[in-house]
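FORM 12-B: Structure-to-Sequence Request
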């Protein structure tokens, strides 16, 4: 009986280890797999309305290959209300007023990711969508959209519209959004900034 118990415990341990790398995302519309290995949970820093995106990025260190940054320079919470996860999962959640939230990670497995998110600006009825991609073939991409609706579909539409790594600037009735790709000590950053006009 002791040997049967040892076999059962070993089997249980093996199954636990095998499934420990999987993560779920309640806002995900579609998830193929989670290839990202975050350094830790997302980190937030305090910012002010007068800082440029370059100044904000100068406050952030990057230790892994990739970094996603959302800077909220409004008086409202940026609430994540949807996502589209083609490869890997969008790693950031809600972003408090006058904070920048960021996440470092290194890709494992296939070594690429592609996803988008949908954020509501408080209760204003205004939304911004952010897209990011590091494909296995082609070029890295970034996108910014302003589809004023909640849910996963606006994130998917923004993801579908991604075509290049050029800076993006949009306005949405009293708010401005900016999306840029930057480098920090050789690490690639996807940075998004939402400001009150």
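FORM 12-B RESPONSE
SEQUENCE OUT:
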């Amino acid at each position: 009986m002791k040997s049967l118990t040892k076999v059962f415990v070993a089997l249980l341990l093996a199954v636990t280890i095998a499934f420990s790398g999987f993560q779920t995302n309640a806002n995900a519309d579609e998830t193929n797999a989670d290839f990202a290995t975050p350094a830790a949970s997302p980190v937030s820093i305090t910012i002010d309305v007068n800082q440029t995106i370059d100044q904000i990025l100068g406050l952030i260190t990057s230790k892994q290959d990739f970094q996603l940054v959302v800077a909220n320079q409004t008086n409202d919470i940026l609430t994540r209300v949807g996502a589209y996860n083609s490869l890997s999962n969008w790693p950031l959640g809600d972003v408090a007023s006058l904070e920048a939230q960021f996440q470092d990670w290194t890709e494992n497995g296939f070594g690429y990711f592609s996803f988008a998110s949908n954020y509501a600006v408080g209760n204003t009825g205004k939304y911004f969508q952010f897209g990011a991609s590091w494909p296995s073939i082609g070029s890295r991409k970034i996108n910014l959209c302003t589809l004023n609706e909640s849910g996963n579909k606006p994130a998917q539409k923004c993801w579908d519209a991604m075509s290049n790594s050029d800076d993006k600037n949009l306005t949405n009735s009293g708010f401005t959004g900016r999306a840029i790709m930057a480098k920090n000590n050789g690490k690639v950053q996807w940075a998004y900034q939402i400001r009150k006009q």
